[in-house]
């Protein structure tokens, strides 16, 4: 609709004026597979973000304790001193002895026997119990060949009892670095003034520079190794930890390799999606190559009536939605992964796989963009006396990946097959 008078910056229609350069990136990359080179970087303008006043940013994580103990030795039908695993394990499936207190009731999952913790543990690998509670019978357990777990099912105290000992669960500190990204464009004064049939060369150079700048950020966000402090030109420089590295360090069991032949079936998909949705939200955003999406479609088509809905738009991008009993996978084909396809080695016989055969799953509620300096266009980087212009883009940023167990990866997927084939 027309606006009478001079337009100011508050009179644009809703969502017309980009608020920052990351939003410009999102506008640059529509659903075209040729243009949408950096979908994760584009999505940083929509995900949770927070500035940081230090290039090292920290956060604390705490998971819900299972209060489930794992035996490390056999127990007889009357033993009251029980050895348990002192390590919680990366999967967080069990805790150590300090997660229980005197008065807690334990269920032996293998036998159904109920025990009562009779004293506060003095070490993280042993508990003392009273056996055969609540009408159950004391039963021996061979931990190596049985279900070894004892799980807290409440507590029981006498009338007039004193308050039990408190139990505190400490958070885990995690940190990452921001990384300085830079990209520049330059053109001589004469070239700038020369008319071209292809249009304004400075405008095109700015667009192209921003495109490759965002691709560089995207690849770093995915493929960087661990957070590292290095020295470049006698100055400190920091490398931000990539997403894959953060998942590998925090949840190695969630990095899943496809079967040896690279073919997945519905049995495999059901097992792995069940593991994928064990923690976090019921929706994961998956970035993968076309080979993985084709494998999904093939496995579903050959085996079941599962539903894959294609042609949808989520986060402003075209996606496929894979509905499973455990949660929904929103699949976005990643053009950069497709560029990194497998092939045949120079010996002419050895085949290798690439990133196009991988899928990476993110629980977007647990991904946060952190920045010292958000993406900025530096208009004047021209050295004094230069017969021309130079400008560029800069950002100092990184990703904060909360609760690695809510994310995952499937590696080496080549195709789909029927169950039992």
State the total count of DSSP E strands: 25
Mean pLDDT: 86
Structural class: alpha+beta
Question: Could you say which overall geometry the principal axes of the C-alpha atoms support?
Answer: elongated
How would you write the strand order of the largest sheet? Answer: 13-24-21-15-18-17-16
Gyration radius from CA atoms, angstroms: 28 Å
SS element count, helices? 8
The CATH topology annotation of the largest domain reads as phage-related protein like fold
- Report the portion of residues in β strands: 25-35%
| Unreliably modeled segments | 1-13, 15-19, 29-35
CATH architectural category of the largest domain: Alpha-Beta Complex
Q: How many structurally independent domains? A: 2
Q: How much helix, percentage-wise, in residues? A: 10-25%
Task: Describe the model.
The protein has 421 residues and is an alpha+beta fold. The protein has 2 domains: 281 residues, phage-related protein like fold; 88 residues. Helix content is 19%, strand content 33%. Strands 13-24-21-15-18-17-16 form a 7-stranded mixed sheet. A 6-stranded antiparallel sheet has the order 3-8-5-6-7-4, with no helix packed on it. A 4-stranded mixed sheet has the order 1-22-23-10. Strand 11 and strand 12 form a beta hairpin.
Which terms would index this structure?
phage-related protein like fold, seven-stranded mixed beta sheet, 19% helix, six-stranded antiparallel beta sheet, disordered N terminus, 2 domains, 8 helices, 421 residues, alpha+beta, elongated
């Amino acid at each position: 609709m027309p606006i009478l008078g001079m337009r100011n910056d508050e009179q644009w229609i809703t969502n017309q004026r980009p608020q920052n350069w990351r939003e410009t990136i999102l506008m640059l990359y529509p659903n075209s597979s040729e243009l949408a080179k950096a979908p994760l970087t584009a999505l940083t303008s929509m995900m949770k973000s927070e500035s940081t006043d230090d290039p090292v940013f920290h956060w604390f994580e705490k998971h819900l304790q299972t209060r489930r103990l794992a035996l490390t030795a056999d127990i007889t039908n009357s033993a009251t001193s029980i050895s348990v695993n002192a390590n919680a394990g990366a999967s967080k499936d069990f805790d150590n002895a300090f997660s229980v207190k005197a008065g807690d009731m334990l269920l032996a999952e293998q036998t159904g026997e109920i025990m009562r913790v009779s004293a506060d543990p003095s070490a993280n690998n042993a508990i003392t119990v009273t056996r055969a509670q609540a009408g159950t019978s004391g039963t021996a357990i061979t931990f190596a060949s049985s279900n070894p777990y004892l799980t807290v099912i409440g507590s029981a105290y006498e009338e007039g009892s004193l308050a039990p000992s408190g139990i505190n669960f400490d958070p885990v500190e995690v940190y990452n670095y921001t990384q300085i990204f830079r990209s520049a464009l330059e053109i001589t004064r004469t070239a700038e003034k020369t008319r071209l049939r292809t249009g304004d060369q400075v405008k095109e150079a700015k667009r192209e520079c921003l495109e490759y700048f965002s691709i560089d950020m995207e690849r770093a966000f995915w493929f960087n190794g661990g957070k590292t402090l290095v020295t470049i030109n006698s100055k400190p420089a920091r490398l931000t930890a990539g997403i894959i590295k953060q998942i590998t360090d925090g949840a190695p069991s969630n990095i899943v390799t496809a079967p040896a032949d690279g073919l997945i079936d519905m049995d495999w998909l059901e097992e792995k999606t069940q593991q994928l949705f064990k923690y976090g939200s019921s929706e994961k955003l998956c970035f993968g190559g076309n080979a993985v999406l084709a494998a999904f479609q093939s496995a579903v088509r050959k085996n079941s009536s599962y539903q894959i809905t294609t042609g949808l738009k989520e986060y402003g991008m075209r996606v496929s939605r894979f509905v499973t009993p455990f949660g929904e996978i929103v699949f976005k084909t990643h053009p950069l992964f497709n560029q990194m396809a497998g092939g045949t080695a120079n010996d002419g016989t050895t085949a290798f796989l690439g990133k196009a055969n991988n899928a990476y799953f993110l629980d977007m509620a647990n991904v946060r963009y952190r920045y010292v300096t958000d993406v900025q266009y530096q208009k004047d980087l021209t050295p004094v006396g230069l017969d021309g212009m130079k400008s560029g883009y800069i950002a100092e940023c990184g990703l904060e990946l909360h609760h690695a167990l809510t994310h995952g990866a499937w590696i080496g997927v080549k195709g789909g097959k029927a169950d039992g084939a």
